[in-house]
From TrEMBL:
This is Ribonuclease P protein component. It catalyses: Endonucleolytic cleavage of RNA, removing 5'-extranucleotides from tRNA precursor. Coiled coil: none annotated. RNaseP catalyzes the removal of the 5'-leader sequence from pre-tRNA to produce the mature 5'-terminus. It can also cleave other RNA substrates such as 4.5S RNA. The protein component plays an auxiliary but essential role in vivo by binding to the 5'-leader sequence and broadening the substrate specificity of the ribozyme. Its EC number is 3.1.26.5. GO terms for biological process: tRNA 5'-leader removal.
Length: 138
């Protein structure tokens, strides 16, 4: 028996992204392990003026969408890198749930000066364009 203040648990909870129909927005999980980033680096990639997007299907049967973010020291000091990653995270949060394919990993890599300086709507458009191009290839 659940306490009265606890919401009733259903099978379609917020983490039930694996049971979603195609085209249904999915919840994004974060890539954390270096090996996942290296596997994405060997996969297909598409560059835009503001970022480089790497994507690969995992093929492990898990239908979650995972995303990782990285910026090298070429982007600038820690403040500049963190700002660029924050902008990439927000763009991914807004764009990827509608365009990402279940069971895929995505890595967004910030570019020097462009990621932080590009208007946010253009940054989102760049991400959407890159994801569409990657899915069109394979």
């Amino acid at each position: 028996m659940t306490p009265p203040e606890a919401p009733a648990q259903t099978d379609a909870g917020p983490r039930a992204a694996s049971s979603c129909a195609p085209g249904t927005p999915v919840r994004l999980a974060m890539l954390r392990r270096r090996s996942d980033f290296l596997a994405a680096a060997r996969a297909d990639k598409h560059g835009t003026s503001a970022m480089l997007v790497q994507a690969r299907p995992r093929g492990d049967g898990d239908s979650s969408v995972r995303v990782g973010f990285t910026c090298s020291k070429k982007v600038g000091n820690a403040v500049a890198r963190n700002r660029a990653k924050r902008r990439l995270r927000e763009a991914a949060r807004l764009v990827l749930p509608a365009l990402a394919r279940p069971g895929w990993d995505y890595v967004l890599i910030g570019r020097r000066e462009a990621t932080a300086a590009r208007p946010f709507e253009a940054l989102k458009d760049d991400l959407a364009h890159a994801v569409r191009r990657l899915h069109a290839r394979g």
